[in-house]
Amino acid sequence: xxxxxxxxxxxEAVISNGMSWSRVERKALHAPLSNHMYPSVEAAITSCSSxxxxxxxxxWHNNRYQLFGDSRTRNHGNAVSYIKGSPVTVAxxxxxxxxPGYKFEVQGNRRFxxxxxxxxxxxESFKKNMGSGRTYCVGVMKMGENVYFMGKSLALIEETxxxxxx
Length: 166
Known about the structure:
Number of helices: 2
Radius of gyration: 19 Å
Oligomer: single chain
Distance between the termini: 31 Å
Strand content: over 45%
Helix content: 10-25%
Shape: elongated
Order of helices and strands: EEHEEEHEEE
Structural class: mainly beta
């Protein structure tokens, strides 16, 4: 059985309200959450970001924005859609995608008290060891209250009590 796991969508990504959003031209989303129209992309993204059922927004020809519960797209000449992605954190000038409920193999035994400290050390490890044949950090993992580790493998394992940033 040949199923498509994902579809490449042409467009651009934007970061807003701590989330990544894929912007696609001439596409509308499926399953409106209501008939309510928002006057700006900022207002719609703010509302969608806090709504667990919302999967994206569509701007219609009248420059009004509507929330949708399905991220599948359909052709629509004048529409522009923004599809909600993953939570994003910015640290040390880098964008980190948050993956709640996943962990990976820990690099070393060095513990950090803040996610920011762990991300800074991860970037330094990457810069120092990339291309050297040595193991380098590929992300950060939260293992408990104020306990963060660097990760060395992108082989993710489900673990409900952790959050990973890559």
